[in-house]
Amino acid sequence: MLKYPIPALHFAPSMDIDWSSPPSDLIRFRENSRPAELLEQPYFIAQTGKKTLAFIADPVAAYEILVTRTNAFPKSIVQQRLGNQAFGPGLSGTLGQQNERQRDAFKTLVSARQAQLVKEVSIDATADAISRWLEQGSIDLYREMSELALQITWATLFGNNHYEGRDMAVKETIDALHKVDKSDFVASAKVVARLTQHFMESGRWQRLTDDNPLRAIANEAGWAPSPGLSQQEVKANALVFAASGHTTTGITMAWSAWLLGLHPELQQQLATGIRLRPDGEYERRTVRNLINESLRLFPPGPEVMRDAKEPITIRGTEIPAGSMLMVSIYFLHRHKTLWENPDLFDPERFSPDRAQAITKGSFLPFSGGDYGCSGMSIAFAEMTSVLSQLLSKVQLDVDPADAQKLMLETGICLYPKSELRCKISLRGE
Ligand code: HEM
Q1: What CATH number has the domain bearing residue 52?
Q2: What pTM value is reported for the model?
Q3: Distance, CA 370 to ligand 1 centroid (Å)?
Q4: CA 182/CA 219 separation, integer angstroms
Q5: What are the strands of the beta sheet with 43-48, ordered from one edge?
Q6: 386 vs 273, which has greater pLDDT?
Q7: Contacts with 129 (C-beta within 8 Å, 6 or more apart), sequence order
Q8: CA angle at 314 for the pair 313 and 318, rounded to the nearest 5°
Q9: pLDDT > 70: what percent of the chain?
Q10: Contact 42 CB / ligand 1 (< 6 Å)
Q11: What is the C-alpha end-to-end distance of the chain, expressed in Å?
Q12: Which of 73-77, 210-214, 269-273, 315-319 has the lowest mean pLDDT?
């Protein structure tokens, strides 16, 4: 069995934390800002003013809150407000029937057909990126993968067209995202929003092909309402999909490549296992295991917030209605009672024979239920396509000393605090 140690992350004992900070501030999952007890306990209760705040790392409760009793635990008003502030009344900023209506209207953006388009576009975009990276010799994986993911997202969301100025717009977005304080969710999201809006309003979207999903909902006259959706909702969702569609996959591909660069033996094994099948597809099962293990160790969305409309009992303790529930995906994924050696990088945990042992509700990188991620299949189409190509063509090398210095912070996603530097050379050279 392969096991590769990666540095554990340290969290402060709860005594050092100022729980009186306003709830909106709690979205910032800075290093040392969560109770270390959650790595061993199923929950941690804190009081902020009159409100009870429950951090939850119990798989049964997490599943109940997110999946089976969604009506009793709707998306938190804080999470909803943040989504609204950043993008407007799109999927991340709405609840109930309005959210359901939008999901329905945007089904085509996450359909199997769209996933196929994402795969096709990813092949060309990755080949271009690899040539560029080989010339550079050493890259910051976080930045480069974010750029690649943004290119793929724009090309597939706004039409598979190479319009003039697209490369410049992608560069501007990435540069701007790197300049803002990444711990500021709204500021980061606004950068993507400004540039995407520029794209949409500059009239370029009018050149989209007739079968483009955005085209189908916005008519020739501009931001006209589509059946059941206002102009504002269409626009907000274009931004939601552009932002959610690339930040998460970019960082996951970066972590996956970085973890491979730290573990040359595993990289070699995976690279030899990646076969190009007669139908032109790569064998992706092992790459899926790698992605799942990266998502377990570094979930891009480390926490989701829900409001308790009804009480919930966790292991015999009742959390009252009116509490704010922080379902801690990060802590579930690293929990000492749920995973064997939780801080070890071990992609084979997700192989079919061992995956059966994974406790239901303990692995939730895409959250779940009515408000869970809508883009999972699109995300896997992109990530498996990019990483399979990368593995089959290049050798990645990461300095183990960098891993010792690794620190994390959050903004829209869980990020590395500094570069994810990696040497890149042609495989076999
Ligand atoms: C590795 C990739 C991704 C991960 C780990 C991820 C994870 C998540 C998580 C944790 C949420 C919050 C759900 C909640 O509050 O319960 C979310 C929401 C969302 N994601 Fe993803 N996501 C990924 C990729 C994508 C992609 C590629 C798209 C679009 C094509 C997308 C579209 C969305 C949307 C629209 C929402 C908002 C749903 C709502 O609030 O109703 N995501 N995602």
Answers
A1: 1.10.630.10
A2: 0.89
A3: 12
A4: 36
A5: 43-48, 51-56, 324-327, 304-307
A6: 386
A7: 144, 147, 148
A8: 40
A9: 72
A10: no
A11: 28
A12: 210-214
Residue 397 CA, ligand 1 centroid: distance in Å: 30
Beta-carbon contacts of residue 254 (< 8 Å; ≥ 6 apart): 141, 142, 144, 145, 146, 416, 420
Please give the number of the atom of ligand 1 that sits closest to the Cα of 329: 10
CA 136, 150, 182 angle in degrees (round to 5)?
A: 85
**CA 344 – CA 259 distance, rounded (Å):** 11
Number of structural domains (the chain) is: 1
Contact between 237 and 106 under an 8 Å Cβ cutoff? The reply is yes
Mutate to test the pocket of ligand 1, among 248, 298, 332, 384 (most ligand atoms within 8 A of CB): 248
Q: Which tens digit of pLDDT belongs to each residue from 151-197?
A: 888 778 766 455 556 666 667 777 766 666 655 556 656 666 666 66
Yes or no: say if 287 and 275 are a contact pair by the CB < 8 Å rule. no
List, in order, residues 6 or more apart from 158 with CB less than 8 Å away.
199, 200, 204, 205, 208, 212, 214
d(C-alpha 282, C-alpha 384), whole Å? 9
Å from CA of 180 to ligand 1 middle: 22
In this structure, are residues 45 and 53 in contact, taking their beta carbons and an 8 Å threshold? yes
**Could you tell me if 172 and 195 are in contact, meaning their C-beta atoms sit under 8 angstroms apart?**
yes
Digit-coded pLDDT (tens) for 280-339: 455 566 899 999 999 999 999 888 999 999 999 999 999 999 999 999 999 999 999 999
Check residues 306 and 36 and name the one with the higher pLDDT.
306
Residue nearest to atom 17 of ligand 1 (CA): 373
Task: Name residue, tokens 């996959």.
Answer: 249
- C-beta 390 within 6 A of ligand 1: no
Q: What is the DSSP letter of 180?
A: S
Q: In this structure, are residues 391 and 285 in contact, taking their beta carbons and an 8 Å threshold?
A: no
Alpha helices in 202-263 (DSSP H): 213-217, 231-262
Token duo for residue 228: 């059941």
Residue 24 amino acid letter: S
Least confident of 31-40, 276-285, 313-322, 393-402: 276-285
Tokens 């899926």: give the residue.
288
The secondary structure of the chain in percent helix, strand, coil, rounded to multiples of 5, reads 55, 15, 35
**Most confident stretch, 14-23, 40-49, 350-359, 361-370:** 361-370
Question: Domain of 8?
Answer: 4-426
Amino acid sitting at position 354: R
